[in-house]
Amino acid sequence: MSELSDALATPIEIELGGKTYKAGIITMNDWAAFEAHAHNLHVDRIVETAKKVYGDNPLPDSVLDRATKSLTEQELDEYQSSVQGISFLLWRSLIKYNPNMTEQEVSGMVVISDIGRISQKFLGLPESGSEKKTKPVKAKTA
């Protein structure tokens, strides 16, 4: 097996609500689902706001154009770091080993104080306090 396939097959363990769950790594399919999810939420917000402004009248082309445009990288980054975005990605990861979990169930298990730990786990960053200590390297003298 290659290093990539080994990594894909190795579950990540994550603690939520006092219970440990297995989760899979985030794949390209998960990112595509994430982008589609973010876009749908974006469209819903635009349409909801436009209906408040325009009522039952037809929406102007400018509103429709904005709703159909792809999200910018900045908008995706903002959503990715939001509680809702993290919860969605966590759910996508968890359903690989827990297929009956719902997105709402997962978001209900996530406590705001756990967001940093969860993000670190999935981004591969060390959790605070767990950084490996290394000895300083002496510079060679000429």
Integer tally of domains: 1
- What summary fits the major beta sheet? 2 strands, antiparallel
- Radius of gyration, in angstroms, nearest whole number: 21 Å
Please work out how many helical segments DSSP would assign: 7
Description:
The protein has 142 residues and is mainly alpha-helical. Helices cover 55% and strands 7% of the residues. The protein has helices spanning 3-9, 28-54, 61-68, 73-80, 83-94, 103-109, 115-123; strands at 12-16, 19-23. It has a two-stranded antiparallel ribbon with strand order 1-2. The radius of gyration is 21 Å and the shape is elongated. The chain starts with a helix and ends in a 19-residue tail after the last helix.
Quick structural summary:
The chain has 142 residues and is mainly alpha-helical.
Task: List strands and helices in order, with pairings.
Layout: H1 3-9, E1 12-16, E2 19-23, H2 28-54, H3 61-68, H4 73-80, H5 83-94, H6 103-109, H7 115-123
Antiparallel strand pairs: 1-2
Features:
142 residues, two-stranded antiparallel sheet, mainly alpha, 2 strands, elongated
